[in-house]
Write a structure and sequence with these properties.
This protein is an alpha+beta fold. The protein is built from 5 helices and 12 strands. The protein has helices spanning 28-37, 81-84, 87-102, 175-196, 199-206; strands at 18-25, 44-51, 69-75, 109-112, 116-119, 122-133, 139-148, 215-219, 224-232, 238-241, 247-250, 254-256. Bound molecules: biotin (BTN).
Length: 258
């Protein structure tokens, strides 16, 4: 890890966060996990200008050059690990609203199950949740990692990607500006989740869900399913209508929308 980021372009964050601003790091998730294991407070936010070993879901890498947003938030929700996973949807809505607040008009923000944020149909942000806790007991900590393609995007990603700049966001929309906007909007959604549970999150997410009602494929650990994307259930599972009739609830997998 290199020293702290220059003060030039620091985000304006609500006081609920404690910012750890780094210039370069292997992975902000690794750094946040280390801090969480040492007892870091809820709201500790690790932000880096670049990562040398950024990690994505399902063992993939996450290209992390300068100019994009890389952050990991330490959260200590007082709920089970299964419920804590709903924070991925909460964060997706926070990212979507943050993008909406800085983007030009007519940009389309949608959510792809479980936690991707698409702009004009292509992936602009990804979320990596990592948690610690004992099954049956409350979550000890959860690290919510977020990467947003602000200035650039990988050409060779598994899913078509884009960046906010490519989609027409001006140069004033820096990663620090987007971090400030995310901090604010995430807090709004997390407070709703704490007060009202998953129902408003589910509604907000479904209102802009990519592929809802369409034929999709879902790759699970050992099989691939196809069917109609019917719903997001009350816990966050994807409800897939099967061709032969019946439904299947999917809690972990990769969605492909033709
Ligand atoms: C995905 O595969 O869609 C999730 C990508 C998550 C990337 C972010 S960048 C900040 C944080 N640190 C990491 O190493 N990964 C997450």
């Amino acid at each position: 890890m290199n020293g702290p980021t220059p003060d030039g372009d620091l985000p304006r964050l609500p006081p609920a966060y404690r910012l750890v601003a780094l210039d370069s790091v292997g992975s902000t998730n690794d750094e946040a996990r280390r801090l969480a294991a040492e007892g870091a407070e809820d709201g500790t936010l690790v932000w880096a200008r670049e990562q040398s070993g950024g990690r994505g879901r399902r063992g993939r890498g996450w290209a992390s050059p300068r100019g994009n947003l890389y952050l990991s938030l330490v959260l200590r929700p007082q709920c089970s690990l299964a419920e804590a996973a709903q924070l991925g949807f909460v964060a997706a809505l926070g990212v979507g609203d943050a993008i909406g607040s800085v983007a030009p008009p007519l940009i389309e923000v949608t959510y792809k199950w479980p936690n991707d944020v698409l702009v004009n149909g292509r992936k602009a942000a990804g979320i990596l949740l990592e948690s610690q806790g004992t099954a049956g007991a409350d979550c000890d900590w959860l690290v919510l990692g977020l990467g947003v393609n602000v200035a650039s995007y990988p050409e060779d990603a598994e899913f078509p990607a884009t960046s906010l700049r490519f989609e027409g966001c001006p140069a004033e929309v820096t990663e620090a500006a987007l971090l400030g906007a995310f901090g604010k909007h995430f807090l709004t959604w997390v407070n709703r989740w704490l007060e009202e549970g998953f129902a408003p999150i589910r509604r907000g997410w479904l209102n802009h869900a990519q592929g809802l009602g369409e034929e999709i494929r879902v790759r699970l650990a050992r099989e691939e399913l196809s069917g109609t994307f019917k719903d997001l259930d009350e816990s966050g599972a994807l409800v897939l209508g099967r061709d032969g009739g019946g439904e299947r609830r999917v809690t972990a997998g990769e969605v492909y929308i033709p």
